[in-house]
């Protein structure tokens, strides 16, 4: 039996193996998403050859990407970060863009890097999905430090998605694109308002009854919303990732609270248990590790880009000098620099697909994002004070 004829089996084995490996009693806790990518490399054409590129894998990887960004959108809660945390998050990300553009411009002149703006956006992401469990497990989610870091992560996830969609929308002029983006955001805001405000008892009773039946109507309706937002986004000339992320924000707002917890659990199971692994394992499958180790420049570029990520997202901690104690600034800078692996993979994939980014740079960015996800959370936990320093502002 050739395993290449059974891609679902190979992906599911890798998806099950990743969390089991993450539970091994080692000093270094490797994030599951990193293990999924590494296992994808191992079973892919540049490894054991159990998984080969195909139309099916491409389609499932796209579905996994959409559901990943949908779940990231669901995690955003502006009520937790409104006010000064959000303002500082926006200012910090603006400074990150400026630093990133300056560094990438130098690399572009050398020339080491093409597609300066796309690369800058990849360098200026923050992995909200990595930060949330860390803050939740440490009991810091509702602390002043946690709200500031949550705001930085939210802007670092949302900002690149919006700008990537604008950069790649070539159907209309700039003014028309901005107008269409505004219309799209208004449509999504209207959908969220309807979802939060209009809750007829009969509809609620139907959804509650079918949530635990074989029909799983609420789950199916959510998946329809994800698909519809993607279609609307693509029809208006933007990338589908914007629609998937917006759908996540809509659903997250609609089902927030204890009443929506059962549906959130089911969505976690469907998306993270089944669909998202296709994206990360598929990313590893397509990752050309031998090409990354081809020469000295290819080997040096990922760690160099990882250090650039630290500078791009870490230096804005200077804006927080009145909010963070001295002992909190280094952990904050390291945590902010944890790249959004999923988003970097999406940007790199889109860059190659649209021929605006070379495969070499694409591979280096994904490798740098992997390294940042491995190194920075561990370094932040080591740098954190044993007794959290008092925050000077709430």
Written description of the protein model:
By secondary structure, the protein is mainly α. It has a single domain, classed as Na+/H+ antiporter like fold, CATH 1.20.1530. Helices cover 73% and strands 0% of the residues. The protein has 18 helices and no strands. It has helices at 7-22, 32-43, 55-75, 78-81, 84-109, 116-123, 128-137, 144-168, 174-197, 201-211, 217-235, 240-254, 261-286, 289-292, 296-314, 326-336, 341-353, 359-383. α1 (7-22) packs across α13 (261-286), α2 (32-43) packs parallel to α13 and α15 (296-314) packs across α18. The longest helix has 26 residues, at 84-109. The protein starts with 6 loop residues before the first helix and ends in an 11-residue tail after the last helix. The model is unreliable at 387-394 (pLDDT under 50).
Short description:
By secondary structure, this protein is mostly helical.
Keywords:
394 residues; 18 helices; mainly alpha; Na+/H+ antiporter like fold; 73% helix; single chain; disordered C terminus; globular
**Major sheet description:** none
Uncertain residue segments: 387-394
What is CATH's topology name?
Na+/H+ antiporter like fold
Average pLDDT score: 82
Which percent range fits the helix content?
A: over 70%
